[in-house]
Amino acid sequence: MARPEARVLCWLCEPDEFAMIDAFVATEDEPDIARTEDLFVPLDAPFAAGRYGAALLAEFTEKAAALHAGLEDESVKPWEPPAVAPGAQDPQPFLQACQSFIEHYQLPGLLALYLTPPAEVSDMGALLAWRPSSSTSPEGSTGTE
After folding, report:
1. What would the pLDDT profile of 75-123 be if each residue is shown by its tens digit?
2. Residues 40/28, Cβ–Cβ less than 8 Å
């Protein structure tokens, strides 16, 4: 399902600015004070060119299980990530899993992935080049970010 309203937002911050973004994400994680219906999922897997999507997928799968455990409706089946197709290129399996998660839980808002690799990313150019784009998303749009 394409979501034309979805966007990739990349905040490049100085270390002393992280607290502001962390506070925003923490606010959005509290149902009583959140300003959006979006689900913010922080992921802090270390960046490794060619393997970052796999690391994010592993971490996202763990976080999804924890989110599911917190659901009040016990009739909802747990989400399982789709099988990775042979030869799939990074970050395609991660994006497909995110799309699958959105569809499984029928999220009312967007899935907002808050990627915070450790500050010691050695190749920032490779990280910026890794960013999902319309050519890498499951549906030809940035519908999973």
Report:
1. 899 999 999 999 998 889 999 999 999 999 998 888 988 888 876 777 8
2. yes
Backbone angles phi, psi at 113, to 5 degrees: -90, 120
Q: Which residues pair with 40 in a beta bridge?
A: 112
- pLDDT value, residue 62: 96
Phi, psi of 55 (to 5 degrees): -65, -40
User: What is the per-residue DSSP string for the chain?
Assistant: ---TT---------GGGHHHHHHHHHHHT-TTT-SSS-EEEEE-PPP-TTTHHHHHHHHHHHHHHHHHHT-S-TTSPPP-PPPPPTTPPTTHHHHHHHHHHHHHHT-SS-EEEEE---TT-S-HHHHHHHS--TTTSTTSS-TT-
Q: Find where tokens 């042979």 sit.
A: 86
pLDDT-derived band at 73 (thresholds 50, 70, 90) equals confident
For 51, the token pair is 């393997």
pTM above 0.90, yes or no: no
Q: Per the structure block, which two tokens stand in for 22?
A: 């962390």
The strand pair at 111-115 and 39-43 is best described as parallel
